[in-house]
Design a protein that fits this description.
By secondary structure, the chain is an alpha/beta fold. The chain has one domain: Rossmann fold (3-Layer(aba) Sandwich), CATH 3.40.50.300. 45% of the residues lie in helices and 14% in strands. The chain has 11 helices and 7 strands. The protein has a 7-stranded mixed β-sheet, with helices on both faces. The two termini are 21 Å apart. The mean pLDDT is 91. Bound molecules: adenosine-5'-triphosphate. The site of adenosine-5'-triphosphate has 19 residues, from helix 1 and helix 9. Dimerizes in the presence of ATP but not ADP; ATP-binding is required for double-stranded (ds)DNA-binding. Interacts with DnaA. Belongs to the ParA family. It catalyses: ATP + H2O = ADP + phosphate + H(+). This is Sporulation initiation inhibitor protein Soj.
């Protein structure tokens, strides 16, 4: 499959909706006919449980297995252990074992590019790979940024931490400089927005003022909604759980924006090729 785009959903701040966005953007893209792999890169394994694999500790094959195989230079079947979800996305699951990887990666050769080496083995089968990052900027997240073509940063208005954003931007800058020169920031997503307050608007204004000239802020903002929180325990997407909810509509709009970015990139590619 040509032109797979790998997107890291990343913010080292906890609880900004990275997992919820990975599920609903990923399934949104699948609903538009795209072949999608979701990668759980968080030892909490929330992406895996959100998609219905509640007992993730008993899964025999996870992202940890795949990273270990690459580190030991073993040639296992790269597709073995990838799960298929009823809403037409594939999942490379995770569980707590991944936390041991932080330490193991530190002493590994080419330690930042282990995940990239693995994903290169499967990416021909997908048009989009979304990586749900953990809330830290440790080795596993560096691996996600090294493997990605671009980053989407979900930000929660109430907790816009200027310092946190600076740190994230610096890390992305360093990854670009040293490991992955083509890494781009696709955009900042205003997430879990409480429309009852003015804070969302002032956060959007602050983000546009500080970053708007260099980074896109998605037009779609995901509203704070009980249904969007509840869906995490249902094993399905917001489109299946509550298709007419404002959150489902917002995620469908975000999906369109992400697809439009992809089309723009393809046009640039073909113009370059001519
Ligand atoms: N639009 C929303 N409205 C209300 N609650 C939401 C919304 N999106 C996500 N949540 C809830 O907010 C919490 C954090 O969301 P989520 O797990 O997606 O964030 P995260 O960034 O992946 O977290 P972590 O940093 O711990 O990995 C969860 O309880 C989730 O159900």
């Amino acid at each position: 499959m040509p032109n797979c785009k790998t997107i890291a959903i990343c913010n080292q701040k906890g609880g900004t909706g990275k997992t919820t966005t990975t599920v609903n953007l990923g399934i949104g893209l699948a609903k538009q006919g795209k072949k999608v792999l979701l990668v759980d890169a968080d030892p909490q394994g929330d992406l895996t449980t959100c998609l219905g694999w509640k007992d993730n500790d008993s899964l025999p094959t996870t992202i940890t297995t795949k990273l270990s195989e690459i580190m030991r230079e073993e040639n296992g079947n790269p597709h073995f252990g990838i799960l298929h979800h009823e809403e037409n996305v594939d999942l490379l699951p995770a569980n707590l074992e991944l936390s041991a990887m932080e330490m193991m990666l530190v002493t590994t050769m080419s330690r930042e590019t282990v995940l990239r080496t693995y994903l290169n083995k499967v990416k021909n089968d997908y048009e989009y790979i979304l990586i749900d990052c953990m809330p830290s900027l440790g080795m596993v997240t560096l691996n996600a940024l090294a493997a990605a073509d671009s980053v989407i940063i979900p930000v929660q208005a109430q907790y816009l931490p200027a310092k946190g954003m600076t740190q994230l931007m610096q890390t992305i800058g360093k990854v670009k400089q040293h490991i992955n020169p083509n890494l781009k920031i696709d955009g900042i997503l205003l997430n879990i927005v409480d429309n009852r307050t003015n804070l969302a608007k002032s956060t959007a204004d602050a983000l546009r003022k500080n970053y708007g000239s260099v980074i896109k802020i998605y037009h779609s903002a995901i509203p704070m909604a009980v249904k969007a929180a509840e869906v995490a325990s249902k094993g399905v997407s917001i489109y299946k759980y509550e298709p007419n909810s404002p959150a489902a509509k917002a995620y469908a709009e975000l999906t369109k924006e992400v697809l439009a970015d992809g089309r723009k990139k393809e046009r640039l590619h073909s113009a370059d090729a001519r």
